[in-house]
C-alpha cells in the first residue's frame, strides 16, 4: 500500500496508522516547497502590473523534470504555491533567479513543507 502511495507522490513525513492507532508506518518520497507571495507590502504598481498566473506558469516551466506545482492557496495577506518534487534544494535552486527578478516575488517566503 505505501509503495503505491509513494508512486503517486506522497510527501516525506507521511504515516499510515494501523491497528487502531497502535502502529504507525512512515512512508513518503517527495519533498515539498511552499512559496508565499506577499500580498500587502509591495508597491501598488507591482500588484497592478504583475500576474500570479505568470508566476505559476514560470514555476511549472522551471520545475519540469524535478517537481511540479500541485496546488495553491489565496489568503488575506499572501498567496501560496505548493510544489512537490524529489529535492527541496533542487526546486529552490531552479526558481531562485526568477524569484529574485520578478517583482511580485519580492519579499516571498520559501518554506519546506515536506
Word description of this protein:
The structure is a single chain. A hairpin with a 4-residue loop joins strand 1 and strand 2. About 20% of the residues are buried. The strands form 2 sheets. The protein has a 4-stranded antiparallel sheet, covered by helices on one side. It is of the alpha+beta class and about 110 residues long. The chain is elongated and about 55 Å long. The model has no long low-confidence stretch (mean pLDDT about 95). It has helices at about 1-5, 45-50, 50-60, 90-100, and strands spanning about 15-20, 25, 30-40, 65-75, 80-85, 110. The longest helix is centred in the C-terminal third of the chain and has 14 residues, at about 90-100.
Q: How would you describe the shape?
A: elongated
What's the N-to-C terminus distance?
20 Å
Q: How would a textbook summarize the main sheet?
A: 4 strands, antiparallel
Mean pLDDT: 95
Key features?
4 helices, 114 residues, two-stranded antiparallel sheet, alpha+beta, elongated
Task: Please outline what is shown here.
With 114 residues, the chain is of the alpha+beta class. Helix content is 32%, strand content 33%.
Q: What topology emerges from the helices and strands here?
A:
Layout: H1 2-7, E1 14-18, E2 23-27, E3 31-38, H2 44-49, H3 52-62, E4 67-74, E5 78-85, H4 88-101, E6 109-112
Antiparallel strand pairs: 1-2, 3-5, 3-6, 4-5
Amino acid at each position: 500500500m505505501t509503495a503505491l502511495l509513494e508512486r503517486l507522490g506522497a510527501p516525506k513525513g507521511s504515516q499510515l496508522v494501523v491497528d487502531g492507532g497502535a502502529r504507525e508506518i512512515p512512508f513518503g518520497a517527495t519533498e515539498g516547497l511552499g512559496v508565499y507571495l506577499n500580498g500587502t507590502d509591495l508597491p501598488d504598481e507591482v500588484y497592478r502590473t504583475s500576474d500570479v498566473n505568470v508566476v505559476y506558469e514560470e514555476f511549472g516551466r522551471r520545475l519540469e523534470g524535478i517537481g511540479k506545482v500541485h496546488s495553491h492557496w489565496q489568503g488575506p495577506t499572501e498567496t501560496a504555491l505548493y510544489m512537490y518534487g524529489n529535492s527541496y534544494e533542487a526546486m529552490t535552486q531552479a526558481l531562485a533567479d526568477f524569484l529574485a527578478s520578478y517583482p511580485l516575488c519580492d519579499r516571498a517566503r520559501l518554506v519546506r513543507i515536506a
